[in-house]
Fold:
Amino acid sequence: MNKYGTILIVDDNASILTAMRYLLDGTFEQVLTTTQPDDILKLMAQQPIDIVLLDMNFTLGVNNGNEGLFWLRAIRKQHPQTPVVLLTAYADVNLAVKGLKNGAADFITKPWDNDELVHKLKDVLDMQSEIVSLDEMEREHIRRTIDHCHGNLTQAAELLGITRQTLYNKMKRL
Amino acid sequence: MNKYGTILIVDDNASILTAMRYLLDGTFEQVLTTTQPDDILKLMAQQPIDIVLLDMNFTLGVNNGNEGLFWLRAIRKQHPQTPVVLLTAYADVNLAVKGLKNGAADFITKPWDNDELVHKLKDVLDMQSEIVSLDEMEREHIRRTIDHCHGNLTQAAELLGITRQTLYNKMKRL
DNA sequence: GTGAGGTGTCTAATTTTTAGACGTTCTGCA
DNA sequence: TGCAGAACGTCTAAAAATTAGACACCTCAC
Structure:
């Protein structure tokens, strides 16, 4: 079975980290953990992290998840390509929704089901690893742009920063 | 004040449609409404729709929102670029979350606040209208791909479907 | 130490993009 | 209805980018 790279787990409860490490050791090549959210960006700068599992309920400071959202945004800002999965209390769906709208890839409620957790993490990584060719990306973006301009090719070309003729070329090539 | 194009509102309650039409007439150039979800794709095929406001609680058939999710998916499949905003019952956050994960742009709970509704719709449209140049999109995708390959340029070039030299060129041009 | 794989650089041929021009068609508006 | 501005479709020649292929160098695992 292929392993899934490096995961970083952030939770202020050390025993949860131990449980997680034990659970995920077989799935990931490397499992990093920290109780200090301040360490997140430092760790991510030191080495490539493939996914972050972030607890939203820090007992220190305000307990409304704002701190979790703060760190989520900080991670997203520095590493927009790294998926972040949230851990929230079972009741706190609202917070999870806020998290999703701030770019989290998914969320998991505590207490969690081990199999489901692993499955969700794998899903997220499988999803985001679909890197497409530059041509394919270009095609898709051109299609979106033309659609956005309701078919006005002149305007679409201008938005795309290319000449109208080049847009014709690219469309002909399909 | 610039108007925001065409909105399509889908709700099986005709009086809600009337209220919506009255509310949104000043904000949108054209307000289309229907009580028949079957009409959605037909209408969208006939003319460009800029945003869809979709009720999730159809009284006909099952009332667990599955029908709403079904239509959301149908819209997303045919028109992945058109934002869909969901209308759900106040209690039904779970359904809204499912909707967001199925590609909805946002959701609004019934009963709704008029100002908030208009504001959310505008937000969604302002957001998605950020079409970037082809170069910018290319840069971003290249950055993501290289990151995904942890810096292995040969592998990144192959994934992108271009030669290594071309990747060098594009990176030099920044 | 050696072989596989990645890097950085080069060349010459090919392809793409560009600016600019032209007449035609569409569209909004008076 | 007719007009003007905008978009369309097509063309040219010059400039720029991409390509395949080659070469020497590095470094890491075995």
Q: What stands out?
A: The domain at 4-130 of chain B is CATH 3.40.50.2300 (Rossmann fold). The longest strand of chain B covers residues 84-89. Residues 152-155, 164-165, 168 of chain B lie near DNA strand C (CB under 10 Å from a C1').
